[in-house]
Every structure is written in C-alpha cells, then in structure tokens.
Amino acid sequence: MTDEQMAGAGSGAASPAGGALGGATVPPVSPGPPAAPPRPLDPIDRSIVRLLQADGRASIRSVAEQVHVSRANAYARINRLIDDGVIRGFTARVNHERAGQGASAYITLKIVQNSWRTVREQLRELPGAAHIALVSGDFDVLLLVHTPDNRTLRELVLTRLQSIPEVLSTRTLLVFEETDLLARDQTAGPTITED
Q1: DSSP string spanning the chain?
Q2: What pTM does this model have?
Q3: What's the pLDDT tens digit per position in 80-91?
C-alpha cells in the first residue's frame, strides 16, 4: 500500500509515468577541479578499511600490528585513504532502539524530474533521516529514517515528506529487524585497544 492510500483519498499527488530519471539525463555536477582517478586498494588497504569500519577509534599501533606493517606505513596509508576520499570520516554505530528511536523505515519516493538536488536538501533537514540515495528503478529516491515511534514516523511521512512540492508519491517499508554486518568484524578478530 502506498502512503497516499494510507492517508486516504486526495492526500497524495498522482505519479506520472517515469520518475526523476524517466528518460531524462541527470544534470552534471557543478564543475570543480578534476577529481583524481580512484587509486586501486591493495589487500593491506582493504584490511585497514575493514578494521576502521569495525572500530574507528583503533590506534595506529593496533592497526599496524593487525595488518603486519610498520606504524609509519599504517599512518601513511590511513592518511592517503583519507586524502583520496576512500575514508570520509569516523563515526559511531548506534543501536537506534536503545537511543530512543524504536521505529525505522525505508521510504521510497518518486520525485519531479530533475529536482534531485532540491529534494535532497529538504530531506537532509528531516528529523531522523539517516541515509538518502538517488536510485534507478520504479522509484527515484530511497530514504532511511529512524523515529521514536510509529506515530512520529506517520507524521514525518504524511505531513513533512508529502508537503515537499517535488515529491510525487511515497511508499513506506517498516523495518522489523536489522543486522549490522560490520558487527561481525568486531567479534571475528581481536579487540582493538587504544595506546
């Protein structure tokens, strides 16, 4: 059932055939300095990335020991991964239910053609928005949200999302259970400790 059907007749806009990408070309990203071509990661780089995904607070020493390189080499590799944009930052993985956000949902959106940048900026402002992606297929945007409860989720979808003029239709997929695949890395190997 679409969110418009959930809200009742007249509360959602009809969706024309095709979405944001329906036969049109996405406008190019604003020009800037040319990006360096991606540098292929070797097995050591991939191991470092996996370790830091499992524990972003890992010390240089523990990373170096686990991938069997010197501390200087590990330090240089991590800095290069950051400079190359492979590592975009360090963050905490949160148990949303324990953090008071017991309702999670993936929401698909069909949007007005060529309105991705406008919609993206409005979605960034939504409370609980965790991930936004422009995708191909039957819909245009995939949005992951975490809210305190289903009532708040309903309000977010039926009031906030559907009031965005460029959003033509939405569909909400409730998340019943999640498995954090990165958590496997923490239990598979030794615990990384700080210096």
Answers
A1: --HHHHH-TTSSPPPPSS-TTSSSPPPPPPP-SPPPPPPPP-HHHHHHHHHHHH-TT--HHHHHHHHT--HHHHHHHHHHHHHTTSS--------TTTTT--EEEEEEEEE-TT-HHHHHHHHHTSTTEEEEEE--SS-SEEEEEEESSHHHHHHIIIIIGGGSTTEEEEEEEE------TTHHHHHHSPPP---
A2: 0.63
A3: 999 999 998 887
